[in-house]
Specification:
The protein has 137 residues and is of the alpha+beta class. 41% of the residues lie in helices and 19% in strands. The longest helix is centred in the N-terminal third of the chain and has 11 residues, at 18-28. It binds adenosine-3',5'-cyclic-monophosphate. Adenosine-3',5'-cyclic-monophosphate is lined by residues 52, 57, 61, 91, 109-110, 112, 115.
Length: 137
Amino acid sequence: MERTFVMVKPDGVRRGLVGEILGRFERKGFRLVGLRMLRIGRELAEAHYAEHREKPFFQGLVEFITSGPVVAFVLEGPNAIAEVRKMMGATHPKDALPGTIRGDFATTIDENVIHGSASPEDAAREIALFFREEELL
Ligand code: CMP
């Protein structure tokens, strides 16, 4: 059993894709163990994306992720980290296959609708950034 952190980004919330995205994961069989809607502040954005701090797209990424509400959630299930990444599709929507979330709903790498943890270490760090232990049921 594994837990992963997932976030519908501001473009996904703005476009009304939250239900569709949550539904896909629920229908797949993952268990929703935590859920929050929030507007991310600059400090949390910089902590969440710390690994990209030196990248040329970092400032744009922080601007975008703080531009409107996001929906953050934690899913639990067998191989949740890799399975969720598979269902999300490739980071760049041009490489994401039809049937994946980015393949079906995104066209650009900047506004690619969804984030999911890349590794067990990232999942633990990201879950702790967004949720207190007692918020995970
Ligand atoms: P995400 O999985 O949230 O992790 C970092 C994000 O940076 C990524 O999705 C993209 O939306 C965004 N990004 C913007 N430009 C790039 C790029 N050139 N390479 C990788 N990620 C990028």
